[in-house]
Specification:
By secondary structure, this protein is of the alpha/beta class. It contains eight helices and 14 strands. A seven-stranded mixed sheet has the order 10-9-8-11-12-13-14, sandwiched between helices. It has a five-stranded parallel sheet with strand order 1-4-5-6-7, sandwiched between helices.
Length: 329
Amino acid sequence: MEKVTTKRLALYTGRTHPALAEEVATHLNIEVGNDNLVEFANGEVRCSFGESVRGTDVFIMQPHYGVDGRSVNDSLMEHMIMIDAASRASAKRITAVCPFYGYARQDRKAAGREPITARLVADMLKEAGAKRMISIDLHSGQIQGFFDGPVDHLTAMPVLEKYVRENATEPVIVSPDAGRIKVAERMAQHLGDIGADLAFIYKKRPKGTTNVAEAAEVMGDVEGRTCVLTDDMIDTGGTIVSAAELLKKRGAKEVWAMATHGLLSGPAVDRLKNAPIERLVLTNSLPLPAEKHLPNIEVLSVAPLIAEALGAVFDDTSVSDIFDGENLA
């Protein structure tokens, strides 16, 4: 007996950021599936898909982030539960879509007796049943090697570059620390046609501290220029704010800050309110609660990029071609 098999794509989302999944689904001309997530009185979560996923290419989207009274750990556990449900329902292939990958900063042992939690998260996704992982602007590229299966590492760079191109002339792209120099350099090269230059901040962290960073000096000519700080995430805001203050001291005309992931945790909102930052540009990889939506914040959508990547995975075509291979660097 011969039978021509058909392929079917299904997209599901947890409760952390359903608006992003809805936007991605719109670009794919599909609807987000019904996962019937239920939370019991003791906080346990149950998932029961509202339709059959047998033989389906299932994409389960969840940024690992605490929102609406739930923690990053709740978000992660919910993601695992949904993946496990799809696996036990005989999905053909399950892809974990993590717009923001949890615990990405714990990617190595920086001191004795520490975990490598970024690896643990990858192991958990695999054990739950995910065969593939998609994420945007991982904190470090080496996390791709933690997951035992294909990883599609997307980047929001095209979205951010388009914004700069449309709103600035002769900007200086500034890396807030040494770790982001390569990314800032690539951005400056792409924007060379509008006269972009490159600079970076020498930053130091006091030994034995977390969420504390001090901007020490600027390497590059920033006087009288529009300076665009670019980073993968803004968490407590310490790095970006100290860098912006230093750039202003060195004569910058304006300071903009751009990041893919706007966590804005703890004192971030208060720090950013008082910071000399004219524009704060984030993407919608994470939800932005109303209380964190400052007047100078602009949110750009990465839904078209995610939708294009999901479509490429489903069609078994190249994801890196979407970014001309520059998402792999």
